[in-house]
Amino acid sequence: MALKPAEFKTDVHNDWCPGCGDFGIVNALQMALADMGLQRDKTAIFSGIGCSGKTSHYINTYGVHTLHGRVLTFAQGAKIANPEMTVVAVGGDGDGLGIGAGHFVAAGRRNVNMTYLIFDNGVYGLTKGQASPTLKLGEKTKSLPSPNTNSNVNPIGLAIASGFTFVARGYSYDIKHLKALIIQAVKHPGLSFLDVLQPCPTYNDLNTRDWYAGSDLMDEAQKRHSRIYKLEDTGYEPTVHYDSEVETNEKLSQALIKSLEWGNKIPTGVFYKNENTTPYTVRLQDKIPNYLENPPAKQNISNNGFSNTDISKILDSLEV
Amino acid sequence: MSSVDFTWLIGGPQGSGVESGANIFSRVCAEMGYQVFGKREFYSNIKGEHSYFTVRIADKKIHSNVNDVNLMASFDAETIFRHYEEIIPGGGIIYDSDLSKMATDAIHTLDAPFKERLHKELESKNKPFTIAGVLEILKEKGVLLFPVSFKSILHTLSEETENPRLKGLIRMFNVIAVSLSLGLVKMPPDSLQKAIDGIFSKKPEVAKINQQTATYSYNYATAKFENFVYSLPGVQKEPGTLLVQGFQGTALGKMASGCRFQPYYPITPASDESVYLESNEILDIIGDRPGSTAVIQTEDEISAMGMTIGGALTGTRSATCTSGPGFALMTEMLGWAGINEVPIVITAYQRSGPSTGLPTRHGQDDLLFSVHAGHGDFPKIVYASGEIEESFYDTGNCFNYADTFQVPVIHMMDKFHASSVITCKRFDTEKISIDRGKLLEKVEDGYRRFEFTDDGISPRSRLGIDNGIFWDTGDESDETGHITEDPILRVKMMDKRMSRLDLILERIPKEQQAVSFGVEDFTIISWGSTIGPVLDAVDMLKKEGISIGLVQMKLMHPFPGEYVASLLQNAKTIIDVEANQSGQLGKLFKQNVNRDVDYFILKYTGRAMTSTEVYDSLKKIVQNKADKREVLMHGA
After folding, report:
1. Residues of chain B with pLDDT > 90: what percent?
2. CA dihedral in degrees (B541, B542, B544, B547; nearest 10)?
3. Which of A209, A178, A171 is nearest to A35 (CA)?
């Protein structure tokens, strides 16, 4: 049953800058959680460090504000120990693709059933606007002393190469679309990734709301053309339908090519989706048959304050 | 009744079966009722470098190795060059007679500094730089030589069993060496057969070849060699004796204590514990369906620590296992666990640092690092196990400390523990109590995770229980877990968390904090695996009428300064014994007890102490002939 987004709001004062793209993301997230009717105490938001890291405090579910770059590690640990939880991890692009890039790649290989959402704005906001991993080579946002000397990472491409089984991009000022993407991502049986383009009004004076809206791209009739477009409007089909290598590779290649599109046309929507890859829970079940029914967090470990684990067979084998 | 105290050494290139040879030997001795203390030494290498195993056996409880070797079983030349000096007069050496002409220069794994020392020694004795030269020295010293052509043994055996494959099966050299050894000491042969069957139970074909080789070699030794004075006919076996490897103590302790989640990243000497946990991941639970430990190999130690914390937030008893370099990576998260009051256990199998240091060698290098690990002030517990048997029960205590005080616990172990094979009493699971502290099963409305309480410990919710919603953050927080930068609240929160340190000292039973084995004029302070050699050394001196006291430190942080001061009130001379360069326990002691250490006995060669060398240094101290820093050097 759908709930009201208000139920997922805390009364914590939100201290993001006025006009920040983050507001759209947290609103979309609260709306999505409410729409899905998720039980608040069966849901956990994990966040990294930076402006986006505060997200967990604004949402009225279990909230774990972790460390810079490490959000996926905490989130996966919790989800593996208690697979009943709905887990959404959020963080900035510097957090997830700079300091946390190793965890990003490793998480893709694991395919734990949860969602990772990146607030992608091209800058390190909370430390006053340094270049983040998604800022392009040679670009100079306003607080950089000189143009960026690093090339950018391609978040969608990296997610696909790492093995994420649901890869999508949203835009923080299209809340309705973003909400729908979040719902799909959370419902996806595996690790889902959402790259959310999020203008930073304070430090990124290049990729602004106006820039995304294409205010610099007027046609002869003085009509604006938004840079953002939706893949689903173009007939793009992201889903792998059959567990076939040929189809999977086709869909992966197509998503990779799409991920390179940037400039005057920026695709949003679902790039890739594959439900055939076994989620980590299933891989664990292959080893531990009753893992889902009796996961680590549910196991009773004591009998009146004493150990109830019977290790006598192992001890027998060690006895001389 | 003459007492048995016998040391056997087997060596060979890594990958040649030194370890399995030692396992067979240890198992046979344990089966025959002897107490066993074995230790493996190896290079950071997969194949080819020199590795060796020293197995000491006795008819009474022993806690360490000694310097003297009574019988050396070698099947390569390097072992002879590296260890010949350890064999005592009257002892023996089994060696491959085909190697006599082998010169030091022909062995590319003999490193330059060692070769230089060896050449000097051989030169001073006017011997050639060959095995023959070394054998002459041994002979002059009164060591018995037992030459055996390993190849001709295989040859004969291959003909007798009509198995041509055996002829070139140099993999069998280890079994030959072990069986010759057991024949020499007249160990009843059926125990050897039983041990081989046990070890190769899943491979009957392999077991058969090994049996044939073992029987032949055993008989060969008994028929050919007569004059060896040592005989080990076996003694009454103590019922309920285990033969365990060091890492099994904490692994079995984790299973029994209800640890159900262990993420880890491979590192020597810690990963054996995790691999063993995963090999036994499905657990029998009394009166319930099977339980399990989810053991997750992560992408790095940071991830291992993050996952461990994530698991602990769900109420699962969670742990990781690592060594110094890995623990170094985990320390940012340690502070996170500290500020969020998350109970986790980090089992830290130390090795020689700094940096990669001696990756496969021993050292108690990380005591001060562990005590100070993490930035900022936060409560944690650093707890050290002495002997392997202890580590089983200590693991249970560590989880209880973590849960009741809601702090991270660093359980200090080391490489000496990890690669020792010992006999001990069967672990008693009934002694493992489970105390989850203020962990909640049900939560009422208005819950606040970091609520101020009388004892400074808040009731703990877990992810996923009704009404139990909480927030965690690495920032300073209010009682609900939301960020605060309020100066007054900050002080209250800091004081609340740090008050845990006094509570720990107050509530952990004194006998779990430090163990006194008696206090004398001369009293030792020591910790961790070093306790083993110290106990044996103290015992050796006692037999000579010299009484030396010993206080074993277990709770390293918070350090029970007052209690230790009171224990040591009547000690006039304090001797700190530990395996690191700077005397780290001595520093903690000085800081917390406000008393100087009079003597240090330190070892940082990367090899564990033997009781012999501790004994020698203690004796020098008692006789007032010692340096303030006694640095021990024994061992190849």
Report:
1. 95
2. 90
3. A178
d(CA B263, CA B298): 6
What φ, ψ does residue B330 adopt, rounded to 5°? -85, -5
Provide the mean pLDDT of chain A: 96
Residue with tokens 């605060």: B484
Q: Does A153 touch chain B (CB under 8 A)?
A: no
Q: What is the pLDDT of residues A2-60, one digit of tens each?
A: 899 999 999 999 999 999 999 999 999 999 999 999 999 999 999 999 999 999 999 99
Judge: B252–A315 Cβ closer than 8 Å, yes or no: yes
Domains of chain A: 5-287 (3.40.50.970)
Answer yes or no: are the C-beta atoms of B8 and B57 closer than 8 Å.
Answer: yes
pLDDT range class, residue B603, cuts 50, 70, 90? very high
Q: Which residues of B390-404 are buried (b: 16+ CB within 10 A; e: fewer)?
A: bbbbbbbbbbbbbbb
Per-residue pLDDT reduced to its tens digit, B503-545: 999 999 999 999 999 999 999 999 999 999 999 999 999 999 9
Q: By the CB < 8 Å criterion, does A49 face chain B?
A: yes
**Which residue in chain B is spatially nearest to A49 when comparing CA positions?**
B474
Q: How far apart are the C-alpha atoms of B333 and A10, rounded to whole Å?
A: 26
Instruction: State the alpha helices, DSSP H only, in chain A.
Output: 22-35, 55-58, 71-81, 93-94, 101-110, 155-162, 175-187, 209-213, 245-259, 280-287, 312-318
Q: Which residue ranges form the domains of chain B, and what is each CATH number? A: 5-224 (3.40.920.10), 245-431 (3.40.50.970), 438-508 (no CATH), 513-632 (3.40.50.920)
Q: Enumerate the residues of chain B whose CB falls inside 8 A of the CB of residue A61.
A: 469
- Residue in B with minimal Cα distance to A108: B299
* Residues in chain B closer than 8 A to A12 (CB atoms): 482
| A73, A105 Cβ separation under 8 angstroms | no
Residue B1 pLDDT > 50: no
For residue A168, give the H/E element and its range. Answer: strand A166-171
DSSP state of B107: -
For B604-623, what is each residue's pLDDT tens digit? 999 999 999 999 999 999 99
- pLDDT band of residue B167 (cuts 50, 70, 90) is confident
A304 Cβ under 8 Å from any chain B Cβ: no
So what's the ipTM on this one? 0.98
Q: Is residue B97 over pLDDT 70? A: yes
Q: Are B292 and A82 inside 8 Å of each other by CB?
A: no
Distance from CA of B239 to the nearest CA of A (A): 9
CB-based contact A80 B311, cutoff 8 Å: yes
Gap between the Cα atoms of B189 and A245, Å rounded: 59
Buried/exposed code over B124-149 (b: 16+ C-beta within 10 A; e: otherwise)? eeebebbbebbbbbbeeeebbebebe
CA–CA distance, B408 with B333 (Å, rounded to integer): 10
Is the Cβ pair B303, A106 closer than 8 Å? yes
- B2 pLDDT above the threshold of 70: no
Q: Are strands B629-632 and B599-603 parallel, antiparallel or unpaired?
A: parallel
Assess whether pLDDT exceeds 90 at residue A222: no
Q: Degrees (nearest 5) of the Cα angle B184, B190, B192?
A: 60
Considering only the beta carbons, identify the residue of A41, A103, A311 that sits closest to B299.
A103
Distance, CA of A115 to CA of A89 (rounded, Å): 6
The residue among A91, A12, A3 whose CA lies nearest residue A59 is: A12
> Could you give the CA distance from residue B389 to residue B374 in angstroms, rounded to a whole number?
30
How buried is A272 (Cβ within 10 angstroms: 0-12 exposed, 13-18 middle, 19+ buried)?
buried
Nearest to A6 by CA among A40, A30, A25, A29: A30
Mean pLDDT of all residues in B295-301: 98
CB pairs under 8 A between A and B: 248
